[in-house]
Design goal:
Layout (H helix, E strand, L loop, with lengths): L1 E5 L10 E4 L17 E7 L1 E2 L2 E2 L6 E4 L25
Antiparallel strand pairs: 1-2, 1-3, 3-6, 4-5
Length: about 90
Amino acid sequence: YILYYTLDKNMLIDDWVMEAISGDRLTHQVVDLNLDTVYYFRIQAKNAKGVGPLSEPVQFRTAKVELPDKMANDQGTIHPHLKEFY
């Protein structure tokens, strides 16, 4: 998968931050995000035949205060609209 995120959902996708996620993992932790900030996420499948369509942007606001690391034991949140991970 390729995970994209940005503060401005109207930016061209080439200007979004991109993180490649290899293997068959169903979770991924995005680090170094600002507290109490709205981010937009999109995801795209990728395999040997190429890339699939981009998902629609999903909005997420980070916590107002630093929280314990919820994914330290590889437990993540499945977003109902992405049906994948963030």
